[in-house]
User: Which sequence fits this backbone?
């Protein structure tokens, strides 16, 4: 597990990521494959104690099913992710809070896609299922919620639409061009670059920490 330290990418928030998942070549629709690592943004205060275990669990499931999550895919809902609270599912997208270029990493032997798992509510999972991930990302860009806050409310678009949670383990939006390769992070629809424009308005306040490097912890 990799911990990015305090105030990364913005004050009061930290980032954790898997380390080693990219050693597995995960299948993709159409015969494509992907090397992937997962990351999640969390508050420094009242950080969910099981967050690292949750990432490990998802990584293990991806290896077992031999398929990486697509952009816009929802894992869950499965009940409260952190023992309590409104977050019940995970939404796979590009790491919009982090600097441009962080979405992929060239190791010399493979291109690793960094996939951000955003905790979302039942209503938001239902909204993705019924309206598609481009509509959900439009709502995120318009309403600019703090996606690192595990106690936040659903975005109003999800509750206003009456979206219901999906009963499926994983729901993938059927949108042409959606995949988990580096191209997913620059694909059609409302890419997180639009969300990132707003996200980084928070992150820019963390510039005193910009020189810190991610480091591993046991």
Assistant:
């Amino acid at each position: 597990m990799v911990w990015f330290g305090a105030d990364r990418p913005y004050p009061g928030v930290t980032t954790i990521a898997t380390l080693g998942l990219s050693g597995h070549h995960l299948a993709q629709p159409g015969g494509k494959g992907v090397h992937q690592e997962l990351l999640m943004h969390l508050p420094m205060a009242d950080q969910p104690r099981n967050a690292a275990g949750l990432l490990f669990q998802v990584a293990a499931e991806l290896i077992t099913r031999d398929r990486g999550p697509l952009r816009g895919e929802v894992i869950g809902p499965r009940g409260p992710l952190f023992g309590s609270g409104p977050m019940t599912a995970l939404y796979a997208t590009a790491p919009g809070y982090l600097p441009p270029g962080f979405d992929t990493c060239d190791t010399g032997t493979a291109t690793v896609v960094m996939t951000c798992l955003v905790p979302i509510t039942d209503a938001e999972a239902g909204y993705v299922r019924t309206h598609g991930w481009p509509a959900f990302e439009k709502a995120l860009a318009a309403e600019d919620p703090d996606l690192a806050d595990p106690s936040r409310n659903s975005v109003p678009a999800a509750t206003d639409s009456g979206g219901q949670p999906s009963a499926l383990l994983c729901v993938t939006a059927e949108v042409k061009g959606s995949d988990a390769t580096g191209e997913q992070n620059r694909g059609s629809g409302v890419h997180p670059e639009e969300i990132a424009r707003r996200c980084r308005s928070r992150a820019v306040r963390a510039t005193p920490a910009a020189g810190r490097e991610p480091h591993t912890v046991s």
Q: What stands out?
A: The beta strands are 2-3, 13-17, 26-27, 33-43, 74-75, 87-93, 104-106, 111-121, 170-171, 215-216. The radius of gyration is 16 Å.
